[in-house]
Amino acid sequence: MNQEDRTPEDAHEAQDVFEDDAEATRRAAGEAESSRASRGWWDRNADEYQSEHGAFLGDDRFVWGPEGLDEEEAALLGPAASLKGKDVLEIGAGAAQCSRWLAARGARPVALDLSHRQLQHALRIGGDVPLVEADASRLPFRDASFDLACSAYGAVPFVADPVGVMREVHRVLRPGGRWVFSVTHPIRWAFPDEPGPEGLSVSASYFDRTPYVEQDERGRAVYVEHHRTVGDRVRDVVAGGFRLLDLVEPEWPEWNAQEWGGWSPLRGNLIPGTAIFVCERD
Prior knowledge:
Layout: E1 23-26, H1 31-57, H2 71-74, E2 87-91, H3 97-104, E3 108-113, H4 116-125, E4 131-133, E5 146-152, H5 162-172, E6 173-184, E7 212-215, E8 221-225, H6 230-239, E9 242-248, H7 265-268, E10 274-281
Parallel strand pairs: 2-3, 2-5, 3-4, 5-6
Antiparallel strand pairs: 1-7, 6-10, 7-8, 9-10
Helix pairs in contact: 1-4, 5-6
């Protein structure tokens, strides 16, 4: 989900990059480097991610973020009854949990992810959802192939050219199609990624758009995440050809006692952790 969620795998899984030796920095990172780093990181860490968070995510639940906001309740894609028969693209699908939820409501989802290993977990869990391994910046679908598109913390925070992703989603959606995506709330970039009191004091400029990069000893990026302000995200949506219908900032619910990296009840009750953009294609 975000940089606070990353932990290295065992050495025998790390191939030629040892993330426990990675150096955290802020520096420029272009489209190709960001894509390469994301593919490698998620391939190496998919097992641990699904093991640690799979119970919370469920096998066929649609959760928008660590707060636990459920699409069943939020209906950001529209009422559940309206999903029947709709062609839906899930971008950054991971193990395709959201797509299974959509399929159970009669939709025809396609789960797309950059990571081969994440999609292997989708196969492990099972179901009839089509799986596609591809980059969100180059969607392998014809124009106007889908009625809806969604992404729960997938792709958008990790790409150097978010407008390019928006335009690709716009291209594959039919007129009037809805595009809903969640990202780490931009205000979180001003605070340390800590779940306790130390995560409540501003430590960096909210306006510093320099990407967060973890790099190996040779300077190769093994993880990249890109910061955009709230205004940047709105402008990206508009530049991609969408109208912004809503910006949802989920509050931390009383029932959720978990800590997920830098997300926690303490922080969640004071500052937003997730931003969900609800957009519509003209």
